[in-house]
Structures are given as C-alpha cells and as structure tokens.
Fold this sequence. Notes:
Blueprint: E1 24-26, E2 33-35, H1 43-46, E3 56-58, E4 63-65, H2 88-92, E5 122-128, H3 136-146, E6 150-154, E7 172-177, E8 187-192, E9 197-199, E10 208-213, E11 221-227, H4 235-248, E12 254-260, E13 266-267, E14 272-273, H5 280-292, E15 296-297, E16 310-314, E17 320-326, E18 334-339, E19 352-354, H6 361-376, H7 383-401, E20 404-406, H8 418-437, H9 440-469, H10 476-491, E21 500-501, E22 506-507, H11 510-523, H12 554-562, H13 577-582, H14 584-601, E23 610-617, E24 628-633, H15 636-655, H16 672-688, E25 693-698, H17 709-718, H18 723-733, E26 736-742, E27 745-746, E28 750-752, H19 763-770, E29 781-785, E30 788-794, H20 798-814, E31 825-829, E32 843-844, E33 847-848, E34 854-857, E35 860-863, H21 869-889, H22 895-911, H23 914-917, H24 922-939, H25 950-957, H26 962-978, E36 992-993, E37 1005-1006, H27 1014-1017, H28 1020-1029
Parallel strand pairs: 5-6, 11-12, 23-26
Antiparallel strand pairs: 1-2, 3-4, 5-18, 6-8, 7-8, 9-10, 10-11, 12-16, 13-14, 15-16, 17-18, 19-20, 21-22, 23-24, 25-30, 25-31, 26-27, 26-28, 29-30, 32-33, 34-35, 36-37
Helix pairs in contact: 6-7, 6-14, 7-14, 8-9, 12-14, 12-15, 17-18, 21-22, 21-24, 22-24, 24-25, 26-28
Amino acid sequence: xxxESSIPYLCGTCQKPVTxxxxxxMCDICDEWYHAACxxxxxQAYSKLGHSSxxxxxxxxxxxxxxxxxxxxxxxxxxxxxxxSLSLDSIQSIPSLQRDLQPKLTSSPTKLPPTWTKGKPLxxxxxxxxxxxxxxxxxxxxxxxxxxxxxxxxETWLSPDVKTSELECDNYAVYRRDRTTGLGGxxxxxVSSAIKSTLTDIQTNSEILWVKINCKGQRDILVGACYRxxxxxxxxxxxxxxxxxxxTEKRNFDIFLGGxxxxxxxxxxxxxxxxxxxxxxxxxxxxxxLMQYELKQLVTEPTRCGNTLDLMITNIPSRIVRTRVIxxxxxxxxxxxxxxxxxxxxxxxxxMIKLYNRTNWKQLxxxxxxxxxxxxxxxxxxxxxxxxxxxxxxxxxxKKLVPTKKAKRRDSCPWVSPLLRQKMEKRDQLxxxxxxxxxxKIETRYKALKRECQRIxxxxxxxxxxxxxxxxxxxxxxxxxxxWTYVKHRRSECSGITAIRGKNALITDSKSKAxxxxxxxxxxxxxxxxxxxxxxxxxxxxDVPSMPELKVGCEGVRSHLRKLNPHKAGGPDGIxxxxxxxxxxxxxxxxxxxxxxxxxxxxVPKDWRKAHVSPIYKxxxxxxxxxxxxxxxxxxxxxxxxxxxxxxxxxxxxxxxLLYPRQHGFRAKLSCETQLTELISDISAELDKGRxxxxxxxxxxxxxxxxxxxxxxxxxxxxxxxxxxxxxxxSFLNGRTQRVxxxxxxxxxxxxxxxxxxxxxxxxxLFLVYINDLPKSVLSSVRLFADDTIIYDDATKSDQxxxxxxxxxxxEKAWDMSFHPAKCEVIxxxxxxxxAAPTREYVLHNQKIPxxxxxxxxxxxxxxxxxxxxxxxxxxGKAASTLGFIKRTLPPxxxxxxxxxxxxxxxxxxxxxxxxxxxxPKTLSDKVEAAQRRAARAVFNxxxxxxxxxxxxxxKLDWVPLAERREHxxxxxxxAMHFKEVNTELHDYIKPSxxxxxxxxxxxxxxxxxxxxxxxxxxxxxxxxxxxxxLDVDSRVLYPPG
Length: 1042
C-alpha cells in the first residue's frame, strides 16, 4: 500500500502533503490543495463547507471558493458520471481502496484517495473561442487559473496576419491551422512548453490538426483538434478518420481528439439519438466510426444550449482520471479532462537575471582598477594571455559584485479585479445550479451574467494596458521603452522551430535540431583552397594608394565602449555590453593595449573566433533546414575592435573611390532608396528614347557563407590594404568555429572553412570588397546592394546580356561563388502593350531563367511598364494588416498610443522608398490616402458607418496628406544630393541651369529635362528638379544643415 506521506497533493501554503487524516480543502478552479488549518479554517467552519454560502479564498488562482471537491480513483472513475462522488460505503466495498478514510469530523466533506501515477495528471481542455483575439483577457485568465497542459481550441477566427505572440501563450508551443478562405473557423493546439511535442505532417482539406506528444515509458499520444462547421458536413468526418488511419498505420499511438463536432442530437449518456434528429445517417456513421477505431467519447454534459457539441474522444478511457465541464469564454462551455499519463518533459535550466540596476558600479570599478593594473604590469604578455587575464577579471567582478535573481514566469492576470472575481464565482455557481436543476430561469441568469463577465473582462484588460503604457507617474523614456517592448513582444513570432525533417523522421530534440541546422550551415562552406588566385580576373592594382598604418588610441576605445547598446546580448565569452559600458573608463587602457598587441602580432584570441549561431527563418517549409539563415553572435570586445578596423578600412576605400559606385549596400550616405531612384531613372530614360530594356535579377546562393578566405586577403592587398590589417583579417577568419544555439541547447562545434560571419561588424565590409570586381566582368549596367544584383541593358543588345551571363559564370567559378538560376528572373521593360516578354531566352548554368512581368527588388514591386498598381496593392495590404495588429493590441481608449503606433509602424510601410515610385496617378494616390484615413478612424475608434468626418479626425491628429509628405521627402532627398549629404551625383542625370525665372525663385536652378513619356516625367530627377526650381527663396530646404 502506498504510504500517505508520498501523496503528491501538497498544501499550497506549507508544501506538506494533504493526507486522508487531515482536514483538507481543494480549489474548484485550479485544483490546488490546502490544509484547512493553513487557511485558519476551524473544524466547526470546516464542517459547513459545501453546505452553506461560506466562502474561502484560493491564493493560487485568486478566487473565492464556495465548496470543496472529493478525491476519485482511477480504477473506478470510468463508472462515474463526470461530477459524481463516491460514498464511504462504496469505497469500503472496493478492496483496492480499503484504508483509513474516516475524516476527523463526520460532518466534514468526504475525502477519497487521490488519483495519481507519478506526478500530476495531464490536463487537457477543449475551448470553442468564437474569436480568440477578441477574448484575450478571458483566455489569459483561464490559462492562469486552470493551468492546462494541452489546449484544444476551435473557432479561433485567426488569420495569418495574427502573430502567435499576440495570443499571450508565452509558456506554450502553439500549433495553428487557420481558415484560409472566408471568415471564422480555425483550430489550434497549444502544448505546455515544458512538454515535448511535434506537429505531424498530415495534410487535410478540413480544419483538422494533429500534434504528437512524447510520453515516458508508454506509447506516444496523438492530440487532435477538429472543427466541423455545420451539421450536414460529411467531408470533415471522412477526412478526420482517414487521417487517424494514416497516422496509426505504421505505428500504434494513443489518441486524444477534441473539438466542436456539431452532432447536437446525440445523447452521449444513453448513446441514443434524440427525437426529430436531422441527418440521422451522418450521426450514426460518426458513432460507427468511433466504434471501428475503438474510440470512446467522454463528455456527457451539455456544452451549448442543452446539446453536447464539444467532444473529447480517446482510445485510452482507462487512463481518464476525471472529466468535467467548466464555464467557457464563448457561448460554449469547456470540457476538461485529466489523464493518467507522464509526458516527456523538456529540461529547462533556470534562467538567472543579472540586476545591473542594483549594482554598486563604484565598487566594481575599484575592483577592476586593481585587476587591470596587475594585468598591465606584464609588459610583454602575448595576446592570448592578455585576453584570458582580462576576461577572467571581468567575469570575476561580475560574479562577486553584480546581484542576480532567478527568472520567474509571469502568468498572473492583474486586471482581474475583486468585483470581477465575485461575478465569476457567482457565474460558476449559477452554471452548476443550472446543470443540476435544469431551470430555465437559472439558465437565463447564468447566460446574462456570463455576458456581463465577458464585457467586464474586456474593459478591465483594456484599462490595465492603457494604464501600463500611459502611466503619468513614469518618465517619458521609461514609458517609451515599455511601449516598444510591449509592441515588439506582440509582433514577434514565438512559435520557434518545433521540428526539423531528418532523413527518416522528424527531429524534435533541441540538441538534435541544433546539430541538424549546424550541419546544413556547414554544408554551404567552400573547401579550403590553396593561396593561389585567378590573377587574370582580379581587381586592378595600378595607382592604388597604400593604406596608412592603424594605431589604436585609448580615447577611441573609450568612445566605442560608451556607445555600446546595453540591451544587446553578450557573446560566447559571457561578457555583457552593459558591464563593458559602465566600466569604460577603467578598462579602456587595457583594451587599447590588447587591440594594439593583437594587430601587431596578427594574433586573434580564440574566443573572438567562436560564434554562437542563431537560426533565423526566411520563408518556405519550416521543417527544412535550408530555409533558415545563420546569424552569428560574437564577443563584444571583438566587435569593438572590428568597428575600429572597419572605420579605418572604409576611410581608405571611400577616400580613394575604390568601391564600385553603384554598390549602395552597407555604405554611409547610400540606401535602398538611392539605389531604387537611380535604377528607375535609368530605365525610364531608356523608355523615353523609345527603347526597351531587358533586366536580369540575379540571386546568389549563400553568398556570405561562400567567401574564400585566401582570395579575400588577396583582394584586400590588391586595393592597398596594409599587410598588418590584411594579416590580422586572415587570422580573424582562419580557425573559426561555430555552434548553433536553439532552445537553450548547443550543437557540437564545427569548423568554419569559408564565409564572413553574418552578425559581425567587419563581415559586411569584407563581403563588399570580395564582390567589388564583379561589374568588371560584364559590359552591361550593373547595380549591387550587398549581394542583390541586377544587370540591364538595351533589349537590342540581348546577345551582349547573354555573353555577360557567361562571363559571370566564369567569375563565380574563379571566386568560389554560386548563382541560383531557378531564383533568378528576367523582365523586359517596354511601352508596348502587346509584347512585354523578351524574344530571346536567357540561360544561366544551362538553365533557362524564368520571365516575369514584375520583380521585387529591395522591397519594391517594379512592373514592366513602370506603373505602380502592384506595389500600391502590396503596401496597402501590408498596412491594413499592421493596422489590424494595432487595433488588436492597443485599447480603443489609448488614442495617443494608437496614433504613435501608426506613425512608427504603419506609415513607414506606406512611405518606404517613395521617392522611387512617387508621384502616383490619382486613383493610386487615393488608395494610399484611404489607408491613413482608416487609421485615423481606428485611433478615435470611430466606425466606418459613423457620420463623423474623417477630415475632422485627421485635423485633430495634425496628419497631413501622405501625398504632401512624399513630395516633401522628394525635395529633401534632392537637397541632400545637391549638398553632397548623399553619395549620388545629380549631374549624372540633370544639369545645373543659370536661368532664373522669377525674383521670388532661388538662384540654384536645374535645367528642365526633355521627356516624351509620363514614366520619365514622373521619375525622381526629372520631376523633383521642377519642384526644386519652383521653391521660394525663403524655403528652408534650400540651405545646408547647420
């Protein structure tokens, strides 16, 4: 017999077992047990619990409780109705339960032996949401109070625009199947993040979802969610049981299925159909399918309007501990089932938070000052010794003097007021009375109170968020940070990498997934080659000035340390940027010596050549490792030195005009917008001359990861980089290793044989140097933005374009790079309506490059007729999605917050690179303005049917028309080019004019360019020159800044 002291039902106050010989109470909502004495409930009061209106307070779920609940036993639970209890006589008649069960007081509630195997049962709830987004407050409180391990949700009404992070399920792995056409529908399964779970790859045309949960010492269990929208639907049921057959044909699984099945006419207690049942055959077919697959339906209480629509179905009824129905968040109640299962748990290392705000920085700097003097005393210490000593001193100081605390899970609902708790308790009691007595008046009162609770929930939740982000007692910078933290968290995708497809099966273990991703990242590296390089295709070496020697100064190091972002993550060495910034004055001399020693000896500490790689999802199938790109997290001290070297290199390259002028990526005073304005102007000028232009958008395959280290060093020396820096860069790149970090697990370390680390400071500049000679291989026009490459020329020179492709094949072979022909695109820009496609086929690697009528280059959709309807449709759709996020996330009462969110989140979408595509035809311009008008109504929470003028709302917000903003933006960019604030030469496109048309006009005039087409007239340089010439002499934009 099991010893009573081993019962896992511990008191929520004293953490000691609540045994059968104790007076114990159990919360109806969260199932937490307490000793009556720990709640100061005397024996006389204890005897009245459950038989009077007396209440007690549960500290765990913060609810007022009317009564207690009995224990049940797993071997006999299947003989009970969901809310029944066993009498003392019936227990004593069961041999397995014969033990001392007599409570101290005969008037106290009867307690039965606890049901448990090892640990608490697996708790599953089945929720019909009817708009999950609209009930986030109730949803969050339900998860906090009920603490389910698995959530099956139907009618989520979610769309792909709604991020999972908006659902406030931070402690769950969420799997979704949203309805793709029409409104409503959608199913969701959320599994506690502590439990190992995987989405299955079964695909159906219905709203059906299956997730596998790994169990310990027993068969894994498949948890399914199904929504059958109408009573007459036959296909959903067919696909459901077809999916069960597919899942179980190769391996036996336990099955647990939940959802809204819409079979209202079944009496699940008597297993008989009610009178006047429509679609009898469908009802009976469903029941027969359950019997065929040996499945049992568990819910016998009604879940909506006297009908049992929300079902819980399983093939392991013997493991059911308890089934009951609790009040829901919609007009459906919630079935809750507990199973005697032990799922495999993920080991989660407790996260420690460093409390830098409570650190005595004066004391820490004093400690470090002594340590730095000791290190500096070693005059001839090598780089590795200096770094090891510095690192040890920093980490020791942090360990001794920076306080820490263990991170705690925030899962309470502070907006739930005492009044709301009382109403919820009354609602729950009315539901119980309605179920037990069946009175229509009680049912009506219950539904009315349920609606009132939902209304109060929304109001209190909105009020809490409004106060959190608009607290007048807080400083402006604190509120701003809190606002953006809140928004960023809601916008981030928190679903993670649930599984990776291996050779034979899905990989779910965190370390195995990290290893699989690391192997993928390693597979794209080029093999180390000999130092020999193809000299015939290298960059020119004539008249290249040599770079001056670099001497690192203490003041420069101190300045870089003070500019560190304290909120960024540390690197593999464990040193945080906050610590380095706060101790900048103390450690700057030591780091200066370390940097100079490293540069002179061309030796890089081993820690600086390590990288922790974070896999970032791009697009496509989330199960495929090739759809993730690596971002490296490197040491902060290394980044500081990289920044110093990068600035020195860039001064040499820019000062001597060594970089390709049409390369606009990773360069100061250049951007996506400058690249796009020049490209569109080039093409429109050719069309204005009556020509057609063929353009080829080229796609590199893993460009940053394929850079050959030996050949990169050769190219650095060819452009005059000093031997000291070139050798240091070689040491920095050689011998690098990386490990993938995923869900707290680290992959095995693997060598990095090629590439420049993405996420480093120096990497982007090294990549620019590596592909700087690409344009010299071709005769056509070439534009580069990092690795985004487009070549274009007159369509009559198609043979030359094809020859350029052949030359690029030679270039990529010589320099170990690779193009991806399937992802390259060809587009012909033309004024003709009948013939928009090129007459010849362009071939790369013996593959025909696909022809398209529009391309997406640097985020802008460019059509072959230089019209912008496709791009405007795209940005308006994206803006509408962002506005939906703002409305879902910020309360209607927070007008200032909603206006701020529009300016920072939605308006940049509508204005991105607008200088390249503005001005617009009136129909398209009105479409963009409509997006802002919708936002104004959303800020004031004014419905579209209201008679309030949108213009009035715009005036209250002081929002000018977007067309005016775009025009002003064009003039500002033109002025920046005129005053050399941007590295684009105006005289390449338009010429200065000495003619002054009016005394009110300024003297800095540009000549009007002749044009034959509307596309050329509306191009940036031609159109903006006219705007510039018409400015009054008093206009502020005419004068240089300062």
